[in-house]
Amino acid sequence: MPALRLIFLSFLVGVWAAACGTDGRRPLPTPDLLSSGTGFRQAAVVCAHPLAAKAGRLALLFGGNAVDAAVAVHFALAVVYPNAGNLGGGGFMMYRPAAGQVYCLDFREVAPQAAHRTLFLDNKGRPVPGLSTETALAAGVPGSVAGLAEAHRRFGRLPWYWLLKPAVHLAEKGFPVTARQAEELNENAPLFRERNPKCPPFVAPRPEGWQAGDTLRQPELARALLGLAQEGPSCFYTGWIADSLEAWMRAHGGLITRADLQAYRPVWRRPLHVLLDTLDLWAPPPPSAGGLSVLQMLRLQSLLRWPPQSLHHPEMVWRYCHAAHLAFEDRYLYAADPDHLPVPVELLLDSAYLLRRYRTLELHRFAPWPGRGSAAFHESTTHFSIADAEGGLLALTTTLNDSYGSRLCVCGAGFLLNNEMDDFSVAPGVKNLYGLPGSPRNAVAPGRRMVSSMAPILVERRGRPFLAVGTPGGTTIVSTLYLTLYWTLVLNQPLEAFHSQKRYHYQALPDVLFHEEGAWSDSLAGRLRTMGLVLRSRAPIGRMDGLQRRDGLWYAAPDPRGDDAAEGF
Ligand code: DON
Fold first, then answer.
1. Domain range spanning residue 540?
2. 260 DSSP β-pair partners
3. Number of domains in the chain
4. Which residues touch 365 (CB under 8 Å, ≥6 apart)?
5. Which atom belonging to ligand 1 lies closest to the Cα atom of 289?
6. Rounded to 5 degrees, what angle do the CA atoms 508, 511, 512 make?
């Protein structure tokens, strides 16, 4: 295995050396060989897979900025982390170039023109199980390719083609799957086969299934990536990939047409901003509700001057539950696609509003929707954070929604489709994959973006880059990020140490405090119960991949809950 890695690495170095050789104007940063452990002096990348982290490192090493590295990492993840890395999905990017202004790019999917409010209901008005998650109708018009291309058009330095080369290579020649990947591919094999009788993806090399170290090759995906590398995003939105996608949709009863693809545009949005003492926090605005929720919760805590307490102290947990309750209720009441419905973000972050709202909050009662809830959780989005050698900082979260999206694969182009349409409200009160009740403001409408929990977040301390954080986890994204920021900003603890803290999550509906196994001792759990909280343990929460600046170094914190990895120099 190390030999294979070495060959691959030398190939990548070759690719970039060639790239920079023809474009020799740019001085290469000298790698700092003294950087050790997880602290890097100049530049760093942290993401869900070691090979994608290497692709990002090489872009940085060869003079690329954080956006260049993001392009390399994103497309590499589409190959080596197909649970969530994608061509067929969407996401949000936060970027602070060295000059200091913070930008937000929304490349969330949109509903196709033929979509409508009752798309997922039968003729009696009842939701059809699986329609918004497992079928061709589940896919929103993909935004990732356009998003990365737009970021690169505006800020990129290295040639697009070279940035995609590692992804093409990884798809064509293959890469060794990890033990975790082998297990997940085996678990999903029946679904891949059943839903893609014509072109099943990820076919195991032997009847018993995948084993760690097996090589996964994706020749159709390699062809699509090569098309993108050579022709740019037009290949996806108006070229042969658009043709394949439209033909596939027609054959499978989906709605996405060439016209939908051609009309897709990512949107630069004014980021949400909250100033807390010497800290500036930046998050994506709606249609991300996640960013708004995290900022509301942190603002509230600062307004109420909650004393610093350990993450698992019952009073801290009690307060957290109230803040989360407020944020999830407001999400239900106000979050929407801002290009279709106004969202009063200034009001929702206003101190007087938050204090008033907090005083009238009733824990255990999700006011906007009286139903009882249940929640399922999936770790199937992906987040990466990048710091470049010139002082730029970037955080990007992207997804297919569920793990491997709808598990439907576009034949000939080898990529998976998202099932992001399930993030819309199927009907008022009907719960999505994450247990959130559908709200009327998030109803399906043509060209509309569905509300999201994704929230890549940047923090400056005294005006200088300090943190880039983000995580998968559906609705739990909000909790993992709140806890991360509480840990680093309020408790002043190192980011890397956050990973050993057991995480918890409350979203008001269901009225249950979910937590990782062993979060509390029996006596503390007993105290939480006497406070009226219902506790339920669940699988690990989130995969927070972040960077923190301390003592002149970038400290990378890849989450040990996955195969996540960091690279830098
Ligand atoms: O945008 C959203 O809120 C969801 N589609 C995110 C899904 C997710 O995070 C899945 N798991 N980690």
1. 1-569
2. none
3. 1
4. none
5. 3
6. 110
Q: Say which residue the tokens 């399930």 belong to.
A: 422
Which atom number of ligand 1 is nearest to the Cα of residue 453? Answer: 3
- Asked if the peptide bond before residue 437 counts as cis, ω within 30 degrees of 0, the response is no
Our mutation pick for probing the ligand 1 site, out of 184, 337, 380, 381, counting the most ligand atoms within 8 A of Cβ, is 381
- State in Å: Cα 138 to ligand 1 middle: 14
Q: Which residues pair with 443 in a beta bridge?
A: 425
Q: Please tell me what DSSP assigns to residue 391.
A: S
In this structure, are residues 396 and 383 in contact, taking their beta carbons and an 8 Å threshold?
Answer: yes
Q: Return the SS3 of 380.
A: coil
Residue 345 is encoded by which pair of tokens? 């973000």
531 CA distance to ligand 1 middle (Å):
30
Cα 44 to averaged position of ligand 1 atoms, centre (Å):
25
Structure tokens at 50: 């070691």
Residue holding tokens 């569920």?
402
Say if residues 382 and 472 touch (Cβ distance below 8 Å): yes
pLDDT (tens digit, 0 to 9) for every residue of the chain, 569 residues total?
Answer: 444 444 444 445 444 443 333 333 445 555 444 444 569 999 999 999 999 999 999 999 999 999 999 999 999 999 999 999 999 999 999 999 999 999 999 999 999 999 999 999 999 999 999 999 999 999 999 999 999 999 999 999 999 999 999 999 999 999 999 999 999 999 999 999 999 999 999 999 999 999 999 999 999 999 999 999 999 999 999 999 999 999 999 999 999 999 999 999 999 999 999 999 999 999 999 999 999 999 999 999 999 999 999 999 999 999 999 999 999 999 999 999 999 999 999 999 999 999 999 999 999 888 888 776 666 666 689 999 999 999 999 999 999 999 999 999 999 999 999 999 999 999 988 888 888 889 999 999 999 999 999 999 999 999 999 999 999 999 999 999 999 999 999 999 999 999 999 999 999 999 999 999 999 999 999 999 999 999 999 999 999 999 999 999 999 999 999 999 999 99
* Per-state percent for the chain, helix, strand, coil, to nearest 5: 40, 20, 45
Q: How many CA atoms lie within 13 A of 377 on its CB side?
A: 25
Q: What kind and span of H or E run contains 191?
A: helix 179-195
- Cβ-contact 167, 75 below 8 angstroms: yes
| In contact, 406 and 138? CB cutoff 8 Å | yes
Confirm or reject: Cβ of 423 under 6 Å from ligand 1: yes
Cα–Cα distance list, 532 to 72, 373, 535, 565 (Å): 48, 17, 10, 39
Instruction: Kindly report the pTM of this predicted structure.
Output: 0.94
Catalytic residue among 381, 397, 399, 484: 381
Q: SS3 for 14?
A: helix
CA nearest 266: which of 108, 101, 117? 108
Active site residue 381: yes
Task: Calculate ∠ Cα 452-455-458, nearest 5°.
Answer: 160
